[in-house]
Design a protein that fits this description.
DNA polymerase, domain 1; mainly alpha; elongated
Length: 107
Amino acid sequence: MDPTTPIPPGRARALLLALLLALAGVLPAYAHAQVDINHADAKTLAGVLHGVGLVKAEAIVAWRERHGPFRRIEDLARVDGIGPRTIEANRALIVLGRPLPPRPRPG
């Protein structure tokens, strides 16, 4: 097939549907990922926690390296840029030990 040949509309719909179904199978695994804030690196923290980019994640790691492990999830509020809203938005994703494995999908 010539790369400049347009994709027929029926085939384009089928490809789009296949892509959406593939993403639907992958994305829920990430939705239930948990992160151990006492062991994760900045890239992992930024990838899992909502509203936490690389700069805030690096601040979490720096605080942990300076002060030791977090004893409670609420201790994250001691990190500049992390407030109660961020903690509450991520409470189900944060662990202080080993993260739980992703939940199996039904079906």
